[in-house]
Design a protein that fits this description.
With about 190 residues, this protein is mainly alpha-helical. The chain has five helices and four strands. The chain has a two-stranded antiparallel sheet with strand order 1-2. The protein has a two-stranded antiparallel ribbon with strand order 3-4. Helix 1 packs antiparallel against helix 2 and helix 3 packs parallel to helix 5.
Length: about 190
């Protein structure tokens, strides 16, 4: 952290602008601020998963590492031209994802969000991650210098979070809540 924050409010944002890491100012509703703000929200929702009781140590380790990387990714988005997330982080997510997914049975149906508190919080994190990915895509269209690795990292992370939802639902004893597509009655032929 470059500057120590001894005073939290500065009043400089009262006009609807905020400072980026490079010192420039942008509107608080700019695509860049939306993207790194949603990455921050994602990090917070992962904190909710970690606050749940009974989360396995391997899941805790994986998600704590992700929280550090999300802080890096937010910093990268906050400082135009900065590179902090690269191919190595994307590859690491793939390795972790494969390790958690390997023992799970293949999916035959869609899963509803649920399966206990930890799994539900993880589903929330997964959906926030997808939104962060969409916002990074929007930002990349407007500002091509935003690196593709940020987009790829979030895409892979949402896959990992989905797998962890399955792991957490099973470990918590709740099991996965499967979508019952047959529950709908077929319309009568007329």
């Amino acid at each position: 952290m470059g500057n120590r924050l001894s005073k939290i409010y500065t009043r400089t944002g009262d006009d609807g602008s905020t400072g980026l890491g490079d010192g420039s100012r942008v509107a608080k509703d700019s695509p860049r601020v939306a993207a790194y703000g949603t990455v921050d929200e994602l990090n917070s929702t992962i904190g909710m998963v970690l606050a749940c009781e009974g989360v396995d140590e391997a899941v805790r380790e994986a998600l704590t590492q992700v929280q550090h990387e999300l802080f890096d990714l937010g910093g990268e988005l906050c400082i135009p031209g900065m590179a902090m997330i690269g191919d190595a982080e994307v590859a690491r997510l793939e390795t972790v994802l494969d390790a958690f997914n390997e023992p799970l049975p293949p999916l035959k149906d869609f899963i509803l969000p649920g399966g206990g508190m930890a799994a539900s919080c993880c589903h929330l994190a997964r959906t926030v991650c997808r939104r962060a990915e969409r916002e990074v895509i929007t930002l990349r269209r407007a500002e091509p210098e935003v690196r593709e690795q940020t987009q790829r990292y979030l895409n892979r992370l949402s896959d990992l979070l989905f797998v962890l939802c399955r792991v957490l639902a099973r470990a918590g004893g709740h099991g996965e809540v499967l979508w019952q597509h047959e529950r709908r009655r077929k319309p009568a032929a007329g």
